[in-house]
Specification:
11 strands, globular, Beta-lactamase, nine-stranded antiparallel beta sheet, alpha+beta
């Protein structure tokens, strides 16, 4: 090939590469600097949340993820008595949002060939021998289709606790209502996820907190999320630097409930303490669920796998692995609410629009519906 021709081809290739990089840089700059879009996002979130927090005890740490950009919006106080403001680094009890992490562990285990969705849970929790529970699978626990609905799944908030032996006895004795069978209905079950946690610990021989940390938190760079054990005073056992960032929880009527770091639960055995996290950490998880910006391809696929509908409830609702699928017509939402009497949490995704919303409140019964039916649709319309 002639030298002139070679130089020409190299020039065209270099020019093409330069233009591609210039386009990428310009696009990135457009994403990184769009004050008009940022202002509109802040306006939408503030419009809906400010009236719910002004003049009320506690507050909300919110995070909006739109087209690759994150904005944190904070309302109210982490502790009214000390007027400590909520920040993106304030630590909240995230209640049932923790279930997303167990579901991700299950999906990751399936992708790595370490377990199967149709494995009976009794394969790992070998004390289970009851006629009904012996037919329940790992996948049914993850998708709330096991049919289990134990006394621990009902309000009021716990004033009694169960040892591991008592929990196993309840499961072995469980009989369903007429017409119910494993995999045939969607019944939300906290106890089902406690059992799922136990099965994961038995499968890997590792405590659930360590499993979540090594397989999810560390790969995603989440350093302010933990599953501490519960102390005798129902307070999370955590390092002082974490406890100092924890919120004071309030009832829906504004009464303080427990000290900062309060945990409540029906179960009195290791691993059943609640998860604590910050808006800054959880938005990392949320962004990974939406955009798949995860180095480990199996973890990336596991996050995607958990979002897929596994059980069709009706035209509007479906159940995935911990996530709930909500079809509003104008927008399809994948979300997970959680709450106790002194804390509320919500994570909602609109993957098709690259939109996510996180709400962490230190108040019981803070409605997740404002995220599902108001804020996310408004963000999707912009």
């Amino acid at each position: 090939m002639a030298a002139g021709s070679m130089r020409s081809r190299l020039y065209r290739a270099s020019a093409g590469l330069f233009l591609s990089l210039l386009f990428l840089f310009s696009s990135t700059q457009a994403i990184l600097a769009d004050p008009e879009m940022d202002a509109h996002v802040r306006e939408i979130v503030t419009e809906h949340l400010a009236p719910l927090t002004a003049g009320h005890p506690g507050g909300v740490a919110a995070a909006a993820y739109v087209a690759g950009r994150v904005q944190f919006l904070n309302f109210g106080f982490a502790d009214e008595a000390h007027k400590r403001p909520i920040t993106p680094d304030t630590l909240f009890n995230v209640a049932s949002v923790r279930k997303l992490f167990e579901a991700t562990l299950v999906a990751l285990g399936v992708l790595r060939g370490e377990l199967r969705l149709d494995d009976p849970v009794s394969k790992y929790v070998t004390e289970l021998h009851g006629g009904y529970i012996s037919r329940v699978t790992i996948g049914q626990l993850a998708t709330h289709t096991s049919g289990l609905l134990l006394p621990t799944d009902h309000p009021p908030w716990p004033n009694a606790s169960y040892s591991l032996a008592e929990f196993i006895d309840m499961l072995n004795a469980w009989t369903p209502h007429a017409g119910e069978a494993p995999g045939k209905q969607r019944i939300y079950s906290h106890a089902g996820y406690i059992l799922l946690q136990l099965a994961l610990e038995r499968r890997y021989g590792v405590p659930i907190a360590q499993l979540v940390e090594s397989r999810i938190l560390t790969p995603l760079g989440m350093h302010s999320t933990l599953i501490p054990e519960r102390g005798r005073d129902n307070r999370a056992i955590m390092p002082p630097e974490f406890l100092q960032k924890a919120v004071q929880g309030y009832s829906e009527h504004g009464m303080p409930i427990g000290p900062p770091g309060n945990q409540q639960g029906y179960f009195d055995f290791p691993g059943t303490g609640q998860m604590f996290s910050t808006a800054r950490d959880l938005v990392t998880f949320m962004a990974a669920c939406i955009d798949g910006n995860v180095a480990d391809p199996q973890l990336r696929e596991a996050l995607r796998m958990t979002q897929a509908e596994a059980f069709h409830v009706d035209q509007k609702f479906g159940q995935a692995m911990a996530w709930e699928n909500v079809d509003l017509g104008e927008v399809a939402i994948i979300d997970k609410p959680g709450g106790l009497n002194n804390t509320s949490a919500y994570m909602g995704l609109v993957p098709a629009r690259r939109i996510g919303l996180l709400l962490l409140a230190n108040r019981g019964e803070f409605s997740h519906e404002i995220g599902r039916y108001d804020i996310l649709p408004a963000l999707a319309r912009q």
